[in-house]
Amino acid sequence: MNVTRLSAFLMLILAVCCVPIITTADSIDNEYEDEATGDVSIDSELVEMSAEELNNLAGTALKNGDILAAVNTYQTAMGMYPDDPVAYYNLGFILVDYLLDTQAGIPLLQKAVELDPDNGDSWFYLGTAFAIIEDHQSAYDAFQKAVDINSKNDAAWYFLGMAAESLGNVDEALKAFNEALTINPNNPRVLESKGVLLSVRGEHEEALEVLKRAESNRDPVDPESLIVLFHIGINNLALENTDLALEAFQKVSKMTAQNNLEEGFITTAIYNIGVLQSAAGDTSTAISTLQQAAERSDDPATSLLYLGRAYLDEENYSEAIRALNRAIAADPENGAAYFYLGNALGDIGDNQGAFDAFINAVTYDPDNSMAWENLGMILFMQENYIDAAPAFADAVRLNQRNGNAWSYFARTLWYNGDEEGAVEAFNRAFKLIEEPDAILLNDYGAALNDLGRYTEALDAFDRALALDDSVPDFWFNKGNVLNNLADFERAITAYQKAVSMDPSPLGYNNIGLLYMRSQDYENALKAFESALNLNDFLSDVWTNKAQALYQLERYEEALQAVESALAVEAFPPAVEFKGIIEEQLAS
């Protein structure tokens, strides 16, 4: 609860207890400044009166609106009867409530409770005075004394709760509000304060119930009821009761305009209406509403942020970027605005601009999991896996339920050579993603294959191919793991499927090597030749071809092939094999 509202409530409660006056503080002399010390002048006409008579006389003057006479009479009483607490209490009350001179009133009220420490009213008004000057600890102590003396004083319990809330002691505040409501269950102000506090704590269902009680106990046309309506809207919004939230904010907007109340209320209400319209998918109306909120607000950053988001939902990227840049200009440390700006720039292909925006997003809002994830995605697309990995690590640290972030974290770990960490991250992703896609399963299989967990890897590749058998890399990877499992026939089939979709030298070379294992040298030769037809600058494939020719006893051709290998580079196996061929030819 902010202090402005607290002080306003205090002055309202105090004013209820008093008779309105027309005399101002300027008409009173300054003699009361020394009343707590007893340094006062005594009116000679009053010297024969008792303390009770003087206090009654002063009270009559106050009721008649003659505040000057009341002050003078209480001063006389204090001078004649310095141990009588009543005059100190009453004059202190006048200073705080009528003359709004709280600093002067506090010493008098302190003197009153010193002389009569069992007077709950004196402690209560001393507490109100401390609350007005925002000395919340002293206010709390005074209100605590008041309820200790009179536990049936619901106003004291209420203000004790307000002081506790200002001190950040939420549990004590709620306890005090509950005590006040035990005494007066339908006090709308206490219900309102309790409801707002529950709302701040995130207990939205209970807050909504309490706020509805507050609303039912207020006059519907009472301007102060808009505070209750506003928080009813906030809690309905939190509970995703969007229609009820919209209805509440529209009422707030209407009441604020009709009663010419604080501009901030209507601006906030309009802003929330726009947010709800956007959430409901009515982005065109939301845009108009949020533009209005931004134009009215002295601090338009939040309205501009949501305006940018609404434009983003409509894929109007130029206006989204414009609104978000205006939000950043209004609040240069608005991490959320940078986040959505990064999304907009990324959607139009400005990856560098998106990268810069996401860097600012995580700088100013380091707890934004999605900002870390999107930063990681930009780095991942740039194949900067070293820097992408810690970005994804922060994303999953902040939101361990983000399966997509876990999947990319796993990929970056694998690309960085941490197969163990990658497999662990993949497993976390699979627990969160109900239907993993084929690419994720393929990458998982590749990491398992690197760890020598071939059976698990084969299962992953088979699951990937069951989802999409049109990707040559999936077949190639399946061929690799079947090769590692010594299932050469099925490995050849998998490689052949891969090269039928995407002919590659590596695929044909692997097929040739498997045929060599089964001593099918003719098919091996054909596979090596297919590889070289695609790229004849591969010394290892030339050497493999030479070996197939050698096994077919085609030594001259084998020698030509190995020389082609050496023409590419001084490949040691080719050098060694050339000697073997030449020795065979010489025999």
| Number of alpha- plus pi-helical segments | 32
**CATH architectural arrangement of the domain at 1-173:** Alpha Horseshoe
Q: What is the β-strand count?
A: 0
Low-confidence stretches: 1-40
Which fold name fills CATH's third level, the topology of the domain at 1-173?
Serine Threonine Protein Phosphatase 5, Tetratricopeptide repeat
Please summarize the sheet with the most strands.
Answer: none
> What's the CATH H-level superfamily name of the domain at 1-173?
Tetratricopeptide repeat domain
Helix-residue proportion: over 70%
The chain-level mean pLDDT equals: 86
Strand content: under 5%
Shape: rod-shaped
Short recap of the structure:
This protein is an all-alpha fold and about 575 residues long. Among the domains are: about 1-175, Serine Threonine Protein Phosphatase 5, Tetratricopeptide repeat; about 505-585, Tetratricopeptide repeat domain (Serine Threonine Protein Phosphatase 5, Tetratricopeptide repeat, Alpha Horseshoe), CATH 1.25.40.10.
Throw out a few tags for this protein.
587 residues; Serine Threonine Protein Phosphatase 5, Tetratricopeptide repeat; 32 helices
